[in-house]
Amino acid sequence: MTGATFDFAAAHVLVTGGTSGIGYAIARAFHDAGATATVTGTRSDASDYDVDLSPFAYRRCRMTETAEIESVAASMDALDVLVNNAGQNLPGGRSEYEPEVFEEAVTVNLFGAFRMASALRGLLAASTFDGGASVVNLASMSSFFGVEIVPGYGAAKAGIVQTTKTLAIAWAKHGIRVNAVAPGVVETAMTAPMMKIEKLTAPLLARTPLGRFATPEEVAPAVLFLASPQARYITGHTLAVDGGFSVAG
C-alpha cells in the first residue's frame, strides 16, 4: 500500500521554521510533490544547519522581529501556500510564568504567524493555484487542553485556532483558504527533553489510543491535504493529528 500523493508542481510554498522537525518534514513533502519551497530559520545562513536545506530557498526570520518578517514577505515574488509552522516553547529554557517570557512565547507562536500571514495576503490573493491559495497554521493539543508547564505557548496555540477561523471568514473573498493542523506529541528536537521523563510521557501515551507519539513525517501529509485542490471546500478547520488523544476519555 502506497501513501497519498499530491501534485504541487508550479506552486510556491513558504514554510516558516522549516529547518527542523515538523517544518522540515512539511517542506520536504512539498518539495517532493513538485513545489518550489522556501523555508525560514533563526540562523544567519542555511549552511549553519546540520540538515540538507539545498532543495529550498532560505530566509532568516526570527518571529519576534517584525522587520525580519516584513523582509521575508518582501523577498517573495509569488506565493500559493503559507505554512505558519515556526514556534517555540519555554524560550531560552525560561519559565513561561514570568510575564515577559509568557509575552515572548505568544509573540513567537501567535503574533508572528499573524504578521506573516498579513504581510503575504496580497501575494496569496494573486495566486491562481487550483483550489485557491492557502494558509495552514500549526496549532497543538495545547490549543484545547491545559498544559501546566507552558501557559504562554498554550495561550498562543489556542489563539491560532481562533485566528484560523476568523481569517477563513475574512479572506474567503480574496480566494484564500485558512486552516490549521493540531498535532499531538511529535518526536522532534523541541520535545526531546520531555521524552526522557517517563512521569511526563506515560500519562500522554496512556491517553493516546494508538499508543505512541507521532513522527514529523506523519503530520506533513495533513498539511499538504489542506493546501491541495482536494480540500478546496475546506476552510476555517483545525485538523487533529493526534493518535486519538483528543477523543479519548
Structure notes:
- The two termini are 32 Å apart.
- The mean pLDDT is 95.
- A seven-stranded parallel β-sheet has the order 3-2-1-4-5-6-7, with helices on both faces.
- Helices cover 39% and strands 14% of the residues.
- It has helices at 21-32, 66-75, 99-125, 151-171, 192-195, 198-207, 216-227; strands spanning 12-15, 36-41, 57-60, 81-84, 133-138, 176-183, 238-241.
- The protein is an alpha/beta fold and 249 residues long.
- The chain has seven helices and seven strands, in the order βαββαβαβαβαααβ.
- α1 packs across α7 (216-227), α2 (66-75) runs parallel beside α3 and α3 packs parallel to α4.
- It has a single domain, classed as Rossmann fold.
List the helices and strands and how they pair.
Blueprint: E1 12-15, H1 21-32, E2 36-41, E3 57-60, H2 66-75, E4 81-84, H3 99-125, E5 133-138, H4 151-171, E6 176-183, H5 192-195, H6 198-207, H7 216-227, E7 238-241
Parallel strand pairs: 1-2, 1-4, 2-3, 4-5, 5-6, 6-7
Helix pairs in contact: 1-7, 2-3, 3-4
Give a brief description.
This protein is of the alpha/beta class. Helix content is 39%, strand content 14%.
Radius of gyration over all CA atoms, rounded: 17 Å
Count all strands and give the number.
Answer: 7
Element pattern in H and E: EHEEHEHEHEHHHE
Mean pLDDT metric: 95
CATH first level: Alpha Beta
Into which percent range does the helicity of residues fall?
25-40%
Proportion of residues in β-strands: 5-15%
The CATH homology group name: NAD(P)-binding Rossmann-like Domain
CATH architecture: 3-Layer(aba) Sandwich
Distance between the terminal alpha carbons, to the nearest Å? Answer: 32 Å
Strand order of the largest sheet: 3-2-1-4-5-6-7
Structural domains: how many: 1
Largest sheet: 7 strands, parallel
Number of helices: 7
Structural class by secondary-structure content: alpha/beta
Task: Look up the CATH topology.
Answer: Rossmann fold
